[in-house]
Design goal:
alpha+beta; Alpha-Beta Plaits; about 475 residues; eight-stranded mixed beta sheet; two-stranded antiparallel ribbon
Length: about 475
């Protein structure tokens, strides 16, 4: 955008600047007044020189401006000060009668205010006063008589025409500027919409870093320690063979949307979607330190696993019989991150054996399981409960790789656990007590108590029917039968 503004400022002009029009009108008013004075023989004939100057000078300035590569503000300040000096010289030559001086200074002040700053206006007033005094004292040899009323009327009418023409030009310019602003706003809105659409193909963090000037779209990479995450849906391939394309697309897009929102919540950079798989990394372009990045990544995975329970319930209500689950793998290590590809088509991603290890961990995980590497475990073990899950031989690694299974937050596994989940046929419980509103807690507790009471009553009524008789009970029954037979 700054380049566009700079190009507009230095581009060749096809329309005149407002100060050029104001200069023509102002000097034209002076030329009409001088011509009228010469015609009625108030001024000597050598004033024809001043008349010719007033007619030629504005166009001469315009030609010079077009051929001089000046900055617009510099040129405007320079020429307005020259106008102030010339106005003062002309007023001094005619001995500055109040009837002519007042309209001239009024036009000069208007031009200075419209085309310059406060400092430019003040310096212009001082320059015009100084040049008027100098011209009156040292350059003027003409003896002034009482100014004729005819000349005053001509000057007044010419001044009125000046302001009327200037107002008409300003109105026209305002309409043109309004139309230009409308077109410019339309173009900006269009480019913003296109930018928004294109930006959806890259991670929001990358988009923001480019827009803020922190990153350039060029082929460059760097080595950084990152936390890499992979996930996919277990059994999605077989499900895709059973479902029609449209409902399958809706299911997948809804799943990816929810998981992406969770990733954004924890600050993850979404690298790509691979079918039903997701690749995310933490540590670039924004990082909070590798330990906090690792905690954020594992926390994201735990919330994704919990959110999958809600999705499964939602899908079941829609008639899906296949209980889908996700598996996840997380690794921490040094990767090469940056733009890969060509100058015309590049992809912001990461490469390295640590990326491959994260993918292998995800493949080795069971349904609903989060597997992490030893490097990640060492960073999160004080906050996250993990179990050792043996080792695995991974391509690219000489020694067996230790595996760790993420269980949950330490705070959620004690007597004060805020999270509960239990599913069986005919029963499903998903509870995050910290997210239940205070106004709803009593209602939730009452519903749970009613459900528990109902289950206990059913257990009591059905227990005698289901309990098998003990040996003592069978012996007593046989003895009773024997007595009755006697």
């Amino acid at each position: 955008m700054s380049d566009l503004v700079e190009n507009i400022d230095t581009a060749p002009r096809t329309t005149p600047y407002p100060d050029y029009i104001a200069r023509i009108l102002g000097y034209g008013t002076g030329a009409v007044t001088i011509a009228a004075g010469i015609f009625i023989h108030y001024w000597p004939e050598n004033f024809w020189t001043a008349l010719a100057f007033c007619l030629v000078y504005p166009h001469l300035v315009e030609v010079i401006e077009r051929r001089t590569p000046w900055n617009r503000d510099t040129a405007l300040t320079f020429w307005t000060q020259i106008d102030a000096a010339i106005t003062g010289l002309l007023l001094g030559l005619i001995h500055a009668p109040i009837e002519l001086t007042l309209p001239a200074l009024l036009m000069l002040n208007t031009s200075l205010i419209l085309t310059g700053s406060k400092a430019s206006w003040l310096s212009g007033v001082l320059i015009s006063a100084t040049s008027m005094m100098a011209s009156y004292l040292w350059l003027s040899s003409w003896q002034a008589d009482l100014i004729p009323n005819t000349l005053v009327i001509v000057c007044g009418v010419a001044t009125a025409i000046f302001f009327a023409a200037l107002a008409l030009f300003a109105r026209r310019q305002s309409n043109q500027i309004g139309a230009m602003q409308y077109r410019l706003k339309s173009q900006i809105d269009r480019f913003q919409e296109l930018s928004t659409q294109v930006s959806r193909y890259v991670a929001p963090q990358v988009r923001e870093s480019i827009f803020n000037g922190k990153r350039e779209a060029k082929l460059e990479t760097q080595r950084k320690k990152l936390v890499i995450f992979f996930s996919d849906i277990v059994g999605f391939s077989s499900l895709s063979e059973q479902m029609e394309a449209e409902p399958l697309t809706d299911l997948l897009n809804g799943y990816l949307t929810d998981m992406s929102e969770i990733a954004m919540k924890y600050g993850g950079t979404i690298d790509k979607f691979i079918g039903d798989g997701i690749m995310i990394f933490f540590g670039d372009p924004n990082t909070k330190g590798v330990k906090r990045d690792a905690l954020a990544c594992v926390a994201m995975a735990i919330e994704m696993r919990r959110h999958m329970l809600k999705l499964r319930k939602h899908w079941t209500e829609q008639g899906m019989t296949t209980p889908l689950q996700i598996r996840m793998g997380i690794n921490t290590g040094y990767c090469t991150v940056g733009n890969f590809g060509t100058e015309s088509r590049m992809d912001y991603t990461i490469v390295g054996k640590e990326v491959n290890l994260a993918s292998r961990l995800e493949s080795a995980a069971d349904a609903g399981e989060i597997l992490i590497s030893h490097d990640t475990f060492s960073l999160v073990k004080d906050k996250i409960i993990c179990r050792q899950r043996g080792t695995a031989m991974v391509k690219g690694f000489r020694d067996p790789v230790p595996l760790y299974q993420v269980v949950d937050y330490r705070r959620d596994l004690g007597a004060n656990s805020g999270f509960m989940n239990h599913e069986t046929e005919g029963f499903s419980l998903y509870l995050e007590s910290e997210k239940v509103r205070d106004s709803e807690r009593s209602k939730v507790a009452e519903a749970l108590e009613q459900a528990a009471s109902k289950l206990r009553n059913q257990v009591k009524t059905r227990a005698p029917e289901r309990q098998a008789p003990t040996a003592q009970q069978r012996a007593a029954k046989v003895a009773a039968q024997m007595k009755s037979s006697k």
